[in-house]
Amino acid sequence: MPRITHARAYLVDLDVETVRTDAVQSFLKQETIFVEIKTDDGLTGTGYSYTIGTGGGAVLSMLREHLVPRLVGQDAANIEQIWMDLFASTRATTTGAITSLALAAVDTALWDLKCLRANEPLWQVAGGFRQEVPLYDTEGGWLHLGTEELVASAKASQAAGWPGLKIKIGKPHISEDVERLTAVRKAVGPGMDIMVDANQSMTSAEAIRRAKALEPLEIFWLEEPLPADDISGHTRLAEATSIPVAVGESMYSVAQFREYLQRGAASIIQVDVARVGGITPWLKVAHLAEAFNVAVCPHFLMEIHISLLAAIPNGRYVEHIPQLRAITNTEMSIANGFAIAPSTPGLGIDWDWAAIEKRTVA
């Protein structure tokens, strides 16, 4: 019965590693919210969450004023009980981004403790299906990049053995998206998976129109074509195109994923461990998707998602967007286009505590 003796939350700002733009926004910075939890058996668990530039202070306030004070004295092994207690204590603000991001920082710290206590890595404690998962590259596909840059990056990813890559779409005219993607497909040939991401920028009618234009290019999936709360629009799109529809990064509860799956509105589930509220609900979404025979390809946070994807049987791809290198000592292992889940106990992230302290802003 490992009792929580101390818990704290703090905020670390990280500059972006490269310019990142899509159809609706730019990635300004990563506000990384940390939670550390100590227990009376001498262990310390570290969890984290994030925003891409705004709202980090609000998440930190939710943690400091409401969630963290409830942790001391609780049994750290009772992860489900703690998650539900914290969730119930914030009913006035659920379901939504601020609460889910705050819950995730606590929940990942508790899972870190669980794995440390078991002396096993997360990918095994959470399920243990396989240790290696395919990677796809997003860093070379941002919307501001020219066609020649897209092609050069795609060929570099292919030469490195990566099986997939993602290109942002949503240019003012459909012909621009088609021209860019046609050039990339011609450069890499038919054997490489090409995903596209519209970042919720389209109407249902426009998404159907653009999907039809892209179908000859054998697109692997069409990601976030519409606002995440437009389930009926996604349903119409899924019925109108042969391209699999991918959603999930802007969804904050298990119930939202259930609605999409029940209505056939998603063929790829991109559940984000931070935005859904932590590892506990992430696994529920993943197993729910498995029941519908749908693959999971999580959004961002590759350093933790590799372990979670390796834990489940329906994990398909990890997204490669490095963003923690400034505050970690080692990088994720990659071999022949596959990410290799860490074997070290805990979450498997080798934090650089001096660098974290230097970048702590609150």
Helices and strands, with pairings:
Elements: E1 4-15, E2 29-39, E3 44-51, H1 56-67, H2 79-89, H3 97-118, H4 122-125, E4 132-137, H5 147-159, E5 164-168, H6 174-188, E6 193-197, H7 204-214, E7 221-223, H8 231-240, E8 245-247, H9 254-262, E9 268-269, H10 279-291, E10 295-296, H11 302-311, E11 318-320, E12 333-335, E13 338-340, H12 353-359
Parallel strand pairs: 4-5, 4-11, 5-6, 6-7, 7-8, 8-9, 9-10
Antiparallel strand pairs: 1-2, 2-3, 4-13, 12-13
Helix pairs in contact: 1-3, 2-3, 5-6, 7-8, 9-10
* Main sheet record: 10 strands, mixed
Structural class: alpha/beta
Number of helices: 12
Strand content: 15-25%
CATH second-level architecture of the largest domain: Alpha-Beta Barrel
Radius of gyration from the CA trace?
A: 20 Å
